[in-house]
């Protein structure tokens, strides 16, 4: 986020994207949050972000003082005291923060927000709201303003402060803190549904869903996740996506900020982490089923990316007080 200079109007996404050589930054939870699944900051400790960007996680911006603008999905939405804004993963957006403004920025992984949905983040657009109502405010932020009165705004700020307090608890309280943070998070989203649910349902019935990701990208991600145990090539993925390899490579980079190989490796590691945490399959079996091949190669790549061996990672979830949520 960016603390705007009042004497210098901030760049809009169109201004920025029109600049020669401009690159849209792509942020991860590891770079912007306190943990792999949740993070919260306020105006006193938010990380600088002066230009349009995207992130791989869900984001909620709760504004309690000051006025600014949310540039999102080709639209501009006003932000006033009592405005709550929602951002889908990989959607380019920008909120220039004003001097003396007060706000909270909440970063949430897909696994933490929607623990019961075993889907890739790119497949969530196909999930009906009846199954995952948490997605409602995120889907229609581009056409709705989620505004609250003064009393509700005070309560929203209290929820944010509670989440911030729990996020600072010691690792021994990790499970309790996770549950309490998620309860406050769902409370916040529930307040949006109570105040604005009719408008969300109307947008859904009118088909106003923002098409965040191109169909070719969705087909590619689906092909990758369904074939992790196989050798995956850009050419095969392009054929499954009904585009040329060159075009697919360009689409993936422009839509996600990542190369085909980076996406494949990321999906393989995430699948391996899930299997290590929640199954009794051996590391060798998991390495084969996720496409890493020989055990030595799996162990080397896992440690290189995750920072621990597969067995050490598994032990985290076997110890008393292990984390409740998949990271």
TrEMBL record:
It holds the Pfam family HTH_18. The keyword Transcription applies. Signal peptide: none annotated. Gene3D superfamilies: Homeodomain-like, Jelly Rolls. Keywords: DNA-binding, Plasmid, Transcription, Transcription regulation. PROSITE patterns: HTH_ARAC_FAMILY_2 (PS01124). Residues 218-316 form the HTH araC/xylS-type domain. GO terms for molecular function: DNA-binding transcription factor activity; sequence-specific DNA binding. InterPro entries: AraC-bd, AraC_XylS_family_regulators, Homeodomain-like_sf, HTH-like, HTH_AraC, RmlC-like_jellyroll. It comes from the Bacteria. This is AraC family transcriptional regulator. It comes from Cupriavidus oxalaticus.
């Amino acid at each position: 986020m960016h603390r705007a200079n009042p004497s210098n109007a901030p760049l809009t996404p169109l201004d920025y994207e029109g600049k020669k050589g401009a690159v849209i930054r792509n942020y991860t939870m590891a770079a912007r949050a306190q943990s792999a699944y949740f993070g919260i900051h306020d105006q006193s400790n938010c990380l600088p972000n002066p230009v349009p960007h995207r992130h791989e996680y869900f984001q909620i911006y709760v504004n309690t003082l000051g006025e600014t603008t949310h540039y999102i999905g080709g639209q501009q939405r006003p932000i006033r005291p009592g405005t709550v804004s929602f951002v889908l993963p990989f959607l380019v957006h920008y909120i220039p923060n004003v001097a003396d403004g007060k706000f909270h920025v909440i970063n949430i992984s897909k696994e933490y927000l929607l623990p019961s949905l075993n889907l890739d983040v790119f497949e969530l657009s196909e999930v009906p709201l009846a199954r995952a109502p948490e997605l409602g405010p995120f889907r229609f932020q581009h056409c709705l303003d989620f505004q609250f009165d003064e009393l509700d705004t005070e309560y929203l700020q209290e929820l944010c402060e509670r989440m911030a307090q729990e996020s600072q608890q010691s690792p021994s309280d990790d499970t309790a803190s996770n549950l309490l943070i998620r309860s406050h998070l769902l409370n916040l989203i529930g307040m949006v549904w109570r105040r604005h649910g009719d408008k969300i349902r109307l947008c859904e019935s009118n088909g106003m869903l923002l098409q965040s990701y191109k169909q070719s990208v969705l087909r590619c991600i689906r092909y990758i996740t369904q074939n992790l145990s196989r050798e995956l090539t850009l050419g095969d993925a392009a054929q499954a996506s009904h585009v040329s390899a060159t075009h697919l490579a360009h689409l993936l980079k422009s839509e996600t900020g990542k190369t085909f190989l980076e996406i494949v490796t990321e999906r393989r590691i995430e699948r391996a982490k899930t299997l290590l945490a929640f199954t009794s399959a051996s590391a060798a079996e998991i390495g084969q089923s996720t496409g890493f091949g020989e055990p030595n190669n799996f162990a080397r790549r896992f440690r290189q990316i995750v920072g621990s061996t597969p067995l050490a990672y598994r032990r985290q979830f076997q110890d008393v007080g292990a984390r409740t949520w998949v990271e």
